[in-house]
Amino acid sequence: MDNNHDVVTELPELDCWELLRQEEFGRLAFHLVNEVHIVPINYVVHRGRLVFRTAEGSKLLGITMNQDVAFEIDRYDDERAMSVVVRGTARELQGEEADDAEHLQLRPWVPTAKFSIVEIKPVEVTGRLFRLDLPWKHMRPTG
User: Within a 13 Å sphere around the CA of 88, how many CA atoms are in the beta-carbon half?
Assistant: First the structure.
């Protein structure tokens, strides 16, 4: 690996938002009583916020009890990996806000009824780019 380049680089916030717009699947971390949970969700970026659908259950209960959440996406190939983390507050949209969100391209990946719409308002958006070496890809069996 070229020692003239950093192996880990912080991504500018604008690049983080571009990556968030390009993806639709990530992981949501939330508190539920005295535990931290992490679950996969599909989402969309809308007006500087992340929006997702959910059914009644642990996610909705968790954000109702404690709005502090974290959200993360990853992307990688053979040469680099990128990770974006959003820390913020989540809340269920109601009334006109929920009606407006119905027009977003929120496409559930599983055919379950998800009537609640939640938005994450970012407090902090950070990202990193990792240059990968993957030495095992260059190894050749001998003999």
Answer: 20
| CATH of region 8-134, choose from 3.10.129.10, 2.120.10.30, 3.50.50.60, 2.30.110.10 | 2.30.110.10
Q: Report the b/e string of 34-48 with b at 16+ CB within 10 A.
A: eeeeeeebbbbbbee
pLDDT per residue over 77-136, tens digit each?
Answer: 888 999 999 999 999 999 999 998 888 988 778 888 888 999 999 999 999 999 988 666
Query: Which tens digits make up the pLDDT trace of 4-16?
Result: 467 899 999 999 9
Using CB atoms within 10 A of its CB, is residue 106 exposed (0-12), middle (13-18) or buried (19+)?
A: middle
Question: Where are the domains positioned within the chain?
Answer: 8-134
